[in-house]
Amino acid sequence: MDFGDSPGELEFRLRLREWLLTNNPELPASSTDDGYWAGTAAWHRSLYDAGFFGMSWSTTIGGQGLSPVYEVIVDEELATAGAPPRPSLGYLVQGILEHGSDEIKQRFLPGIINGRDRWCQGFSEPDAGSDLASLRTRAERSGDDYVITGHKVWTSYSDEAEWCLVLARTDREVAKHRGISAFAVPMRQPGIEQRPLRMINGVTKEFGEVLFDRARVPVGNMIGQPGEGWPLAMTVVSHEREPGELGYVARYSKVVNDLTRQVRSHPERFRSEQIRDLGWAMVEVEMLRLHVMRRLSDRLNGISHGPHGSVDKLLMTWVEQEVGHAALSIGGIAHNGSDDTSLNTYLYSRAQSVMGGTSQIQRNLVARRILGLPGS
């Protein structure tokens, strides 16, 4: 595999590198500070307006129409510059792109991609996390609208979003996987209450729970046909689990690079076991980077991975938790108001084995759908 840049790719890389010299927003580390989440919308728009976001999506929906290779270049340069990773929206775009009508795609995708419209994802519920098909939120037809009643949780950016991609049950007489529909629901309306959830690392802007009390959504905002929400959900969670889609390698590389600079600046402060922890994190991040490059090569050759996204999710979990461990080992625990980024990075990493589908669920999927092992 040739990792070298073509002349066009090199020109793009150098242009992005030059742009970052004066446009890096210097946000706090991702998922460790409310200031990061407060600045992501402006960062998204800045990247897009400069031509550095939505690289591989079609120009017909607001993308740049380039090869996926350019997504990797963006991730690499952001990590090298210590800039925030690109916003994680590919799973929403892919869900609407594969399951929405042409009218739905033109209505919603350009605003998602250019960052002018803020979205959240209303999938998980208090009693339907890993078993998503058991969701209880219901949508009942009322004239030209559906009326939605229910409760969603772990809804990222729900306090900032104008729109929510909601899964709701529209038919309770069929098998649970078949009675679910998907909607683009406007968030700024009566009947929707958003409650922020404070995370263990102190962040209050990332997660929330959303209560729907007879909120209304036009029939025309259904994505796909009635009862076709489950295939859309599977498309979304499959892309949600791919580290390459989310720019996670850039995020992990940024943390490792910051830790490496700390050690090189004052090597006498660190013991051999701390150096070992950092070295292992570096190996894990590089392993994930090469895995993402292999996935990219497959995509360029028209290969789709389907359930192999569960392998990606497990790898991503191992890497994030190894990086979190190294952050705590090198940075330690803050005292007397000092910088607590390292501790917060570690605390956030513990959630990776739960969010986006638990590691136990991913192992079951690998066993049954990839290895063909029998169920219990």
What is the helix tally? 12
Largest sheet strand order: 1-4-5-8
* Protein structure class: alpha+beta
Q: State the oligomer.
A: single chain
Residues in β-strands, percent: 5-15%
Relative helix content? 40-55%
Terminal CA distance reads: 41 Å
Which H/E pattern describes the elements? HHHHHEEEEEEEEHHHHHHH
> Which word captures the global form?
globular
Low-confidence stretches: none
Biggest sheet character: 4 strands, mixed
Radius of gyration computed on alpha carbons: 21 Å
In total, the number of strands is 8
Mean pLDDT: 88
Write the layout of secondary structure elements.
Blueprint (H helix, E strand, L loop, with lengths): L6 H17 L10 H16 L19 H13 L8 H10 L2 H13 L4 E4 L15 E5 L2 E8 L10 E7 L10 E7 L5 E6 L9 E12 L3 E2 L5 H12 L2 H4 L1 H18 L6 H29 L8 H23 L9 H9 L9 H12 L6
Parallel strand pairs: 1-4
Antiparallel strand pairs: 2-3, 3-7, 4-5, 5-8, 6-7
Could you list some keywords that capture this structure?
376 residues, alpha+beta, 8 strands, 47% helix
